[in-house]
């Protein structure tokens, strides 16, 4: 396993403030080069072996390859949700009870057009603006340039009282990143993948998180075989949804879901629900 970038180098407060104020931030040089290399090789293998083809719709793209449910597709991906130079920023934006919402790749091919501007939380029917219920990240496995389709963002829109109209053109700017950097944004931020006018692919890993009290976008409990989850480190088990939020949400007969997994290494016995604590 690769060693994560030194989390002490990451200004968690500064990044969280930037997200609160403009809706997005870039953590530069966040990913260790050997992990970038491992993810790049593994993604290429998956795309080949799964014979991944573009979905051919305006949202997922016409020349874009996406592989979903990556945590079920190899242990190299298990390093991503818990990565120590990124997760603390997400925990500051949501809270430490946050969950993996989805983990997928977005490989934008030459000639791809821009994705419609959207907000990742726009299907959640609660009035806006609201505190972040979603916090998403894009790991740059290649440089992200204006020419090759860097994610386009519209600063400040996470504070708007509505979501964008799908398909309407908006003025936006590219979130430029060097390979190895990570873009983090508030789920209400208006954004979209850029057009790729180059002859090279723009490859990113979309590591998306949500608050511990809302539903995950990809169903992690069904999508990842429980026997596989049982082998995950405890923090990753919590992040995929086998913990309980605020001492209550997600329990099974007052037990931690992680305890009910086959071969779980978690503590045995019933967990203290919030009911027990309040007396
Ligand atoms: O590929 C990108 O840069 C952004 C993609 C995105 O926002 C999405 O698919 O929801």
Question: Descriptors for this entry?
Answer:
279 residues; alpha+beta; Jelly Rolls; six-stranded antiparallel sheet; three-stranded antiparallel sheet; 7 helices; 20% helix; binds 2-oxoglutaric acid
Overview of the molecule:
The protein has 7 helices and 9 strands; from the N terminus they run H-E-H-E-H-E-E-E-E-E-E-E-H-H-H-H. The chain folds into 2 domains: 7-211, q2cbj1_9rhob like domain (Jelly Rolls), CATH 2.60.120.620; 224-278, no CATH class. The mean pLDDT is 94. Helices cover 20% and strands 17% of the residues. With 279 residues, it is an alpha+beta fold. The chain starts with 11 loop residues before the first helix and ends with a helix. Strands 1-7-4-9-3-2 form a 6-stranded antiparallel beta sheet. 40% of the residues are buried. The chain binds 2-oxoglutaric acid. 2-oxoglutaric acid is lined by residues 106, 115, 120, 138, 151, 191-193, 204.
CATH architecture group name of the largest domain = Sandwich
Order of helices and strands: HEHEHEEEEEEEHHHH
Number of domains: 2
Q: Class of the largest domain in CATH?
A: Mainly Beta
Total helical elements = 7
Per CATH, the superfamily of the largest domain is: q2cbj1_9rhob like domain
Portion in strands: 15-25%
Bound molecules: 2-oxoglutaric acid
Number of strands: 9
What's the CATH topology label of the largest domain?
Jelly Rolls
| Helix amount | 10-25%
How many strands, what sense, and barrel or not for the largest sheet?
A: 6 strands, antiparallel
SSE class: alpha+beta
Measured distance between first and last alpha carbons: 44 Å
Task: Detail the poorly predicted runs.
Answer: none
The Rg value, from CA coordinates, equals: 19 Å
Shape estimate? globular
